[in-house]
Design a protein that fits this description.
82% helix
Length: 128
């Protein structure tokens, strides 16, 4: 049996993942926007949102000493909302998104929802 991840570690994972998303959405994907089919303005919006999530999670990882569960609940809810927004964009731009775009955004949603599930389990478990 494996040892469950601490809430502090989950904040670190969440923060690094959000930072990677912010960089991909803000720097890489706009350069190749036609290969993905998502309008650049929405790539930048998603990037800015992910950057805010990264700052929040990394701050919580570094500075939050106690009472982390409500803080983790907040980012888990924000992550789920981000997935719903991204899913809405997939529906809105379904005609212009390329297969690569659908694959990228579908994969991002899947990874984030897995993290949300792990975060929810940790919150219920009451990890510190």
């Amino acid at each position: 049996m494996h040892r469950p991840l601490s809430l502090r570690t989950l904040f670190l994972i969440d923060g690094i993942g959000a930072l990677a998303s912010a960089l991909a959405l803000g720097l890489v994907l706009p350069t190749f926007a036609s290969a993905f089919g998502m309008p650049k303005r929405f790539l930048y919006l998603l990037s800015a949102t992910a950057a805010c999530f990264a700052l929040y999670s990394l701050w919580c990882h570094r500075y939050a000493k106690s009472g982390r569960a409500p803080l983790l609940r907040g980012i888990a809810i924000a992550n789920a909302a981000y997935c719903m927004f991204t899913l809405g964009l997939l529906v809105m731009f379904r005609e212009q998104l390329t297969a690569l775009g659908k694959l990228y955004f579908g994969g991002e949603i899947a990874v984030i929802l897995c993290l949300v599930f792990i975060e929810a389990r940790a919150i219920r478990r009451g990890a510190s």
